[in-house]
Amino acid sequence: MNYFGLDSEDARTISKILVPLSDLPLMKLSLIGNDIRSIGVRRISGGLLDNQTLVHLNLSLNPISDKGIEHISSALPFWFDILINNLE
Question: CATH number of 8-83: 3.20.20.60, 3.80.10.10, 1.20.120.530, 3.40.50.1370?
């Protein structure tokens, strides 16, 4: 889902599908180059709390602030591979 123009409202939908997918082997989710901001990261973080299979999340090239980093880091176990680049 790279460069799809997804925004923070789309992140709400992504967070909802992460919970049902927790029983499936979804191991990677790449959301590179979208318009997901801190509120979107907060929404995705909520879905990740119940997901036990995702081990790689790529949010590179999204305008995520320090607050967004706090949201995602509080939701993910230390062993997750998180790539967040080009922060505003």
Answer: 3.80.10.10
